[in-house]
Write a structure and sequence with these properties.
This protein is of the alpha+beta class. It has helices spanning 2-31, 65-71, 75-80, 83-86, 143-154, 202-234; strands at residues 96-100, 117-124, 127-135, 162-165, 168-172, 176-181, 184-186, 189-191, 195-201. It starts with a helix and ends in a 5-residue tail after the last helix.
Length: 239
């Protein structure tokens, strides 16, 4: 009888201890924050400003059209060509211009500083807001090689670049961005030829995006009003 009673008491004690242990574990787990492991490489923020953006072969963001023309005399002529002939990407922005180096009268191949590159300049109100430089002869081994070359010569922080894909890297700083492409597609195949660096004034670009959006919105409203007026005219009888 005593042995049976002892076994019963022991069973109750063990069961109670198990319940306490389980409850305690669940409670502690409920209070413990879930740990999220980020497997992506850390990208440091770029603290450089527009004034710190790199100069590329003498050209830089916010540079005036007149200053560019002092380096390339035929630039002003190309800049003054009517927009319809230039066919720029920002066709809705009235004071936007896009000039390509292959449209200049200057022979860049005869100028030591420019013989191995080609350019696309984009200007807003006479100021450079985007510069695309294509390196015709330079062939990096891979994106890491290109990144090392660019950051060691421009002062851009390597740790702030984000590699988007095997051939593209991007850095976003305070007021400007840089896109790197370590080659180009040739006959549907990737080639290390014609690596590219695109420097952009992100504030100006955002302002143009907003302006284009408003222009399109207003055009849509005007078109809807015109259509409504036409419908009204068709349904109005004049004896």
């Amino acid at each position: 009888m005593l042995s049976f009673l002892n076994r019963s008491i022991l069973t109750v004690i063990c069961t109670s201890l198990s319940i306490v242990l389980v409850a305690g574990t669940a409670l502690s787990q409920g209070k413990r924050p879930t740990r999220v492991i980020d497997t992506k490489p850390k990208v440091g923020a770029c603290v450089l400003t527009l004034a710190d953006s790199p100069r590329l072969r003498g050209f830089y963001l916010n540079q005036s059209e007149r200053d560019i023309a002092s380096l390339l005399p035929s630039f002003h002529k190309a800049y003054e060509i009517e927009k319809d002939e230039l066919l720029p990407s920002r066709e809705l922005i009235s004071d936007f211009r896009e000039v390509r180096s292959d449209k200049l009268d200057d022979d860049l191949t005869a100028i030591e500083e420019y013989r191995d590159v080609s350019f696309i300049w984009q200007l807003l109100s006479g100021r450079l807001v985007s510069l695309s430089v294509t390196y015709e002869d330079y062939e990096p081994m891979n994106m890491n090689d290109f990144l090392e070359a660019v950051t060691s010569t421009t002062g851009l922080p390597l740790k702030s670049f984000h590699v988007v894909d095997p051939h593209t890297a991007v850095i976003n700083c305070d007021g400007f961005s840089v896109i790197l492409k370590d080659g180009s597609f040739t006959k549907a195949k990737w080639s290390p030829n014609r690596s590219q660096l695109i420097l952009t004034d992100t504030v100006a670009s955002a302002a143009m995006d907003a302006e284009e959006k408003e222009i399109k919105k207003q055009r849509a409203k005007d078109e809807a009003a015109k259509k409504a007026e036409e419908e009204k005219r068709k349904r109005t009888f004049k004896p």
